[in-house]
Amino acid sequence: MPGHPRCCAGLVSRARASRGFTLLELLVVMVIIGLLAGLVAPRYFDQVGKSNVKIARAQIVSLGQALDQYRLDVGAYPTSEEGLDALVNKPQNEPHWSGPYLQKAVPVDPWDRPYQYRSPGEHGDYDLYTLGKDGRGGGTGENVTISSW
């Protein structure tokens, strides 16, 4: 019945329930999401940086083991000129080469740059290192030099 008060009260409450969120409510939710992202994102990206450093260290250890196996077979580490490619492709005039010493191609560091290799090295029989994210060496965090020595 159109003039009945109960009927109108039901229509008003249904209208309130279906009108949605106000602009202020949406802004408050967006601010809360922004604050949470501001707190979580730096920690997440810090973990990604730490992971890249751990990956580089693990790859250097793996490459070092392949270099040691090469030395056992050939009698010396690859020269700087032969480089890490000698772990995958037989150098000329190496009759005792029994590689490949890596299952796949020589990996690049987590920042898509080749690992630096020098033999004889300044810190041992060979130097194997990456200069970190910034490519300059030294530094801290992701910008640290990661080396075999």
From TrEMBL:
It is a single-pass membrane protein. SUPFAM superfamilies: Pili subunits. The keyword Ion transport does not apply. Keywords: Cell inner membrane, Cell membrane, Membrane, Methylation, Transmembrane, Transmembrane helix. The chain crosses the membrane at residues 21-45. It comes from the Bacteria. It is found in: Cell inner membrane. The keyword Cell inner membrane applies. InterPro entries: Bac_GSPG_pilin (IPR000983), N_methyl_site (IPR012902), Pilin-like (IPR045584), T2SS_protein-GspG_C (IPR013545), Type2_sec_GspG (IPR010054). GO terms for biological process: protein secretion by the type II secretion system. Residues 44-149 form the Type II secretion system protein GspG C-terminal domain. GO terms for cellular component: plasma membrane; type II protein secretion system complex. NCBIfam families: IV_pilin_GFxxxE, typeII_sec_gspG. Belongs to the GSP G family. PANTHER family: GENERAL SECRETION PATHWAY PROTEIN G (PTHR30093), TYPE II SECRETION SYSTEM CORE PROTEIN G (PTHR30093:SF45). This is Type II secretion system core protein G. It comes from Trinickia terrae.
